[in-house]
YhgE/Pip domain-containing protein (Paenibacillus zeisoli), 716 residues
Amino acid sequence: MTKILSIYTQDIRNIATNWTASVVILSLILLPSLYAWFNIEASWDPYSSTQGIRIAVTNLDQGTFIQGKPINLGLEIKKSLETNTKIGWVFVSHEAAQRELKYGNYYAAIEIPREFSQRIASVLTPNPVQAEIHYTVNEKINAVAPKITSKGASSIIQEVNQSFVKTANGAIFKIFNDIGVQLEHQLPLINKMKGLLYKLETLFPEINNGVDVAVKDLKVSHSLVQEVQARVPEAAELARKGTEFSTSLIQFLDQSRSALTYAAPQVKQTLIRIKQSLDAAQLGITAAEGLQDNKSSDVVLTNIDRAQQSLTEAVAAAHTFKSLTDSINAVAPSGALTGISTEMLSVIARIESLQNMLGQAFQQGQGKEPNVLLVNTSKKTVTLISSELDRMIGSFDSEILPSLQGAIVQANNTAALTRTTLIKAQHSLPKVQQILIDASKGLTLGLKEAKLVQERLPQVENQVKAIGDRLRALEKEGRLEDLIKLLELNYEKESEFFSEPVILAESKLFPIPNYGSAMSPFFTTLSLWVGGLLLVSMLTVKVKSQLEFSSWQVYLGRFLTFGTLALLQSVFVSAGDLFILGAYAKDKLLFIMFSLLISLVFMLMIYTLVSVFGNVGKAMAIVLLVLQLSGSGGTFPIQVTPLFFQAIYPFLPFTYGIGLLREAVGGIVPELVIRDILVLTLYGLISVLLGLALKNRINRLAAPLLQKVRKSGLIH
């Protein structure tokens, strides 16, 4: 132990007594501090000084009109950027922007195209087109600058989007608000319509039945129209024949009226002839009655037979008169003619009855005396009939003939009216035919549409039922009144909310005020390793003395010197970080103490490599430095580095040195501090063990090789 201390004390004495060595040693102590301080200061807050990053802005927007109002969003963006001092915005032409960007005078160029406002306004058209802002970056100038310029370009897009969303949402929610007011006014009508919909839903069975009946009735009506159409030609033929018949009938009646006028005396004469025949029969009967007592029965029977003959003539004449009257009455029915015909029929019946009585009298009188009673009754009957005929003959000119003539005139008028009606019917039949054709077409179309309704009605019923089910489901989920209240909310506040519905509430678990303070653990750790490399580069690990020392004594004795210098380096670096630069540390004392530990471990590792392996050890320490720059997670999260660095990350001293200082800067997590201290201590112990175990052996083996290398005159 004495020899170890003697080496250390001799080194201190030599430094103190040799001012040149003192200056060199002092420089070696201060150089790591300068390395750390410059880097920390350079990265103190780089994102607050981005106004020097020049970005060209070119506005080519021609603007547009929305509902008759001119807008130019490109000009609005330009005005907004003119007040933004976070980045050095430069407003130039398209040609100047591209030229200066190419030569590196601008880091990026942003161009607002001509149709920018027009595309934004296309949101109000059926085919909206997204607007674009052209962003061009020169990545050759600097690796970090494109990230900053990209952030600036993104902020423009975000500002435009947020403004657009706020404006659009404001318009939309204003419409919703108006709809809510209208819905509130129309709520009674909506409820009424809803009730009608539910009622319609229950009436569909009756509607279906009604449509079925309508289809059936339309089919029947169509069949009837077709049948009538088929009979129209027959009706036309009947009308034609009826017209011809009525024309003939009129002619016949005209002739009959003329004939009646001329034949009236003969008609009357017929009545007279009947009367004369009755008178003759009355004479025969009277004669028969008078001869019953004086003449033989044969003479009586002869008179009776003569009377019968006269009665036969009277019956024939009476039938002639009745036939004439019935014929005229058949053509032109008349009460008077019917009465005359009935009266004549009564006369015929009495005459025939009289004939029967005389016939009986004649039969009974064969070979004996005729029946006096029958003869007397016959005489009375003839008298009555004769009186009736006298009355008819007397009223012929005043009653019977006018009745006959009036009946013919009436028949003539009826025939003329019938003829006129049939002629009109004939003229109307084409129109009727056309009406029937139109009716057939209408019924065909109606039947087609009715069948279509019949086919589609189930689908409509299902849709109405679905709407009803949906309304009932909506009523279960919430009332329309609640929706109206929601729509009537303040549209301006709703617009502001939806333009930025989520606000990031940032909470810093371990707050660090600036980027430089956050980077101080990395640069401090790095400078301590660099300080160790400087010491082994400038100072020798060998001991030149007249005393004899073993290899382990030399190893430990000289390390005390290197360790002391390393501790001084760490004091200057850490204290300078805190008190010169003003770097933030949650616990300043621990920051200095952790720096002492890290520096001591790093120096032990580097010193062991050089002490054991000589110049090769220096190269190994430099290789470790290079690996740890990228593999320790000091600048970027280790998760974004290649897999190789992620694999070696847990085994690098920087990992735990940086981690330990971060605990002092941000805030202590005891478990992490203990872990980092234990791992660093382990690295130190392993280094000591390797140095004590291998120094003597490796030095002897490497001595011949070193002699040959030195002979080259290039390597000391």
